[in-house]
Write a structure and sequence with these properties.
Length: about 280
C-alpha cells in the first residue's frame, strides 16, 4: 500500500466556491462518487475511491483542498477482476466536511438524496463531475457516439434533461428503470456530440480518459442513408400567443402545424408558469 499526504496552500477562492469551475466539477464528482462518514466527538471522513489509473484526478482534488488530506492505494480481488488496484482520497477536516455537507453531500448513503446545489454554481462543470463519476462517454457497439448518466436522484436526472434541452434542443423525460429504479438519461449521435463538446471544453478538469473519449466523438459522421436526428422545433412568442388565444390544443395544432400532444403540453407549461408567457420573456 502506498501512502501520500499533503498540506496544500490556500487557494485564491473560498474552499468549494461552486462558481469556480474546478470546485463545481469536484463537488459534482463527490456527490456521485464520494462518501461522508462521521463518528463520535465530531470525527469523520470524506473519501473517494476510484481506479488507480485515475489517481491523477485525486491529486488535483488534493491540490484544490487547503486542508490535510491523503491518497492511498490498495489492491484486492473483486467480482470483476482477479486483482484490482484502487486509489482512495481521504479528508478528515471537520471544517471541510461541514462545508461540503452544507452544500448538499449527505452523510451516509446518499445516491437518491443528492440534488443540484441551492447556491450559485457553474452548471456544466458540475454536470461533467456527475458524468465522470456516474456516467459514460463513448461509442456503442455499433460505433455510434453517446453520452449518458445513471442516477437514483430524480432532481439530478431532471437537471440533466433541462441542461440537455438548452444545449441540444432535444426534450428528454426521465423515467425510473423498472428493473432497478434508477434513471438512465441518454444522448446519442449528434446530440451526444453537442453535449460532449459543451461539457468537455479545452483545459477543463476531468478524468483524462473520458475527456479523450469526448474529444473522439467529434470525428464521428452519421452513416450515409441513416435518418437524420430529430431536432426539436422551438416555440416562438407568436405561436404562444395563438395557442393561448385559441385555448384549444386541437385547434392550435391545425393552425400551427404541430401535433395536438405538443400543443397540449405547451399550453400546460404556459398555464403553470413553467415557461414564460408572451411579453414576460
Amino acid at each position: 500500500m502506498r501512502f501520500l499526504t499533503a498540506e496544500c496552500e490556500p487557494t485564491a477562492h473560498r474552499f468549494m466556491d461552486l462558481t469556480v469551475p474546478a470546485y463545481a466539477y469536484m463537488f459534482g464528482f463527490l456527490q456521485a462518487d464520494g462518501h461522508l462518514s462521521h463518528q463520535s466527538r465530531k470525527r469523520g471522513r470524506l473519501s473517494v475511491e476510484i481506479s488507480a489509473r485515475d489517481i491523477d484526478l485525486l491529486r488535483q482534488f488534493q491540490k484544490l483542498t487547503p486542508y490535510n488530506s491523503s491518497i492511498t492505494e490498495r489492491t484486492r480481488s473483486t467480482n470483476f477482476a482477479t486483482t484490482h488496484t484502487a486509489a482512495i482520497w481521504s479528508l478528515h477536516s471537520l471544517e471541510a466536511r461541514t462545508r461540503i455537507n452544507e452544500l448538499g453531500l449527505p452523510y451516509g448513503h446518499k445516491s437518491s438524496a443528492i440534488s443540484p446545489p441551492s447556491v450559485e454554481f457553474s452548471r456544466r462543470d458540475y454536470l461533467r463531475g456527475l458524468i465522470d463519476a456516474d456516467g459514460s462517454v463513448g461509442f456503442t457497439s455499433k460505433g455510434f457516439p453517446f453520452v449518458s448518466l445513471t442516477t437514483s436522484s430524480s432532481t439530478i436526472s431532471s437537471f440533466l434533461c433541462d441542461y440537455g434541452r438548452e444545449v441540444t434542443g432535444a426534450e428528454r423525460t426521465a423515467k425510473r428503470n423498472a428493473r432497478d429504479g434508477v434513471y438512465n438519461v441518454l444522448y446519442m449521435m449528434e446530440l451526444a456530440q453537442r453535449m460532449a463538446a459543451d461539457l468537455y471544453y479545452p483545459g477543463c478538469l476531468s478524468l483524462e480518459r473520458k475527456r479523450a473519449s469526448a474529444d473522439s466523438l467529434s470525428a464521428c459522421v452519421r452513416p450515409k442513408g441513416m435518418r437524420a436526428a430529430y431536432t426539436a422545433r422551438r416555440w416562438t412568442e407568436t405561436e404562444d400567443r395563438i395557442l393561448l388565444k385559441l385555448n384549444s390544443p386541437m385547434a392550435a395544432a391545425e393552425v400551427l402545424g404541430r401535433t395536438t400532444q405538443s400543443c397540449n403540453l405547451r399550453l400546460w407549461r404556459l398555464r403553470t408558469g413553467q415557461v414564460p408567457r408572451p411579453g414576460d420573456q
